Amino acid sequence: MVAIAAGSDVLVQVTKPLLMPALAIAVVLARLGRRFTPGAGLLLLAIGLSWLGDLALMVPGNLWFVVGLGSFLLAHVTYLVLFIRLGGFGRPRAWAIVYAVWFVVFLAVLIPGLGSLTVPVVLYGLVLGAMATAATRVSGVVAAGAAVFVVSDSILALSKFMPGVVIPGHDVLTMLTYCLGQGIIAAGVLAAIGRARTEPAATGRSGARAL
């Protein structure tokens, strides 16, 4: 973030690819001495797919943007599966309706400038909203991380597809909210996995399978 704020493209190119591997290492260290679970595996897979997305978005051009979008789409699908495993199926928190409103408003705002990217961006937004909605059933921490992730992607979308909209420091804000979102999700998921392992009959409050 300091490199972005300073306009040091070389330092950005060196440090950005290290973000998700660092988070993955932190997750592995947090699980040392404990049995490896499917939940931890899904978390690491989502982080790995996000890392591929980071790398793709560093390359200029719409083709690589779509590749990066696809990688993050798969990361959100992985998070969605993970959150369903942790939180179970059922009614999300009432306030999750905000994601439906966000999706409709963002489509109305962005579609005029999307062109050939309309379908992939709409699909991405749908999965992103579903992921954030499912997160509300896991824990407040996971829900907060998912919400911050939505903010990050929203800032990125506005800055890319609506050049007339000026968001001061949007590059720094995008990376700040991205790092916070990923980190908070990881911390919340690890805590939820720990709770699930200690609950009676290997079931959580919502009846979800322990991870």
Give the overall average pLDDT.
Answer: 88
Residue share in helices? over 70%
> How many domain units?
1
User: What string gives the helices and strands in order?
Assistant: HHHHHHHHH
Structural class call reads mainly alpha
Q: Largest beta sheet, briefly?
A: none
The number of helices is 9
Distance between the termini: 34 Å
Overview of the structural elements:
The chain has 211 residues and is mainly α. The chain has one domain. The protein is built from nine helices and no strands. It has helices at residues 2-6, 9-15, 19-30, 38-57, 62-87, 97-114, 118-135, 140-161, 170-198. The radius of gyration is 17 Å and the shape is globular. The two termini are 34 Å apart.
Please name the defining characteristics of this protein.
211 residues; mainly alpha; 74% helix; 0% strand; globular
Topology:
Blueprint: H1 2-6, H2 9-15, H3 19-30, H4 38-57, H5 62-87, H6 97-114, H7 118-135, H8 140-161, H9 170-198
Short description:
The chain has 211 residues and is mostly helical. Helix content is 74%, strand content 0%. The protein has one domain (2-199).
